[in-house]
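User: Second chain of the day. Same drill as before.
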Amino acid sequence: MTINPIEDAIRNLGVKNLFKVDETNYKIAFLLHENDWRPLKADWWRGKEVCIIGADINGNFFLRHCDGSVRYWEHKSNSDKVISKSIKDFISNIEWGTDF
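Assistant: Same format as last time:
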């Protein structure tokens, strides 16, 4: 049986929960199962279609954009930025983290 990479990442979040981009560390609080991804409908979102795929410990979202990239939505700045070119790249770069 083949394990879906997102399912494997969810299963390992207790120990592998850190995503790094440049000098920024994102501590992943949760990831959603792929079959739970739904297009985001929120007053604050003005961009193209995205799905929430998870969140960090500060309540900011990891979004899968319709172009395939993974973006980080920061509520405080009311903005998003590309943090990974794809879901596969995002999942494969989740590292060993520390306790919450």
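The chain has a mean pLDDT of 92.

User: Great, on to the next one.
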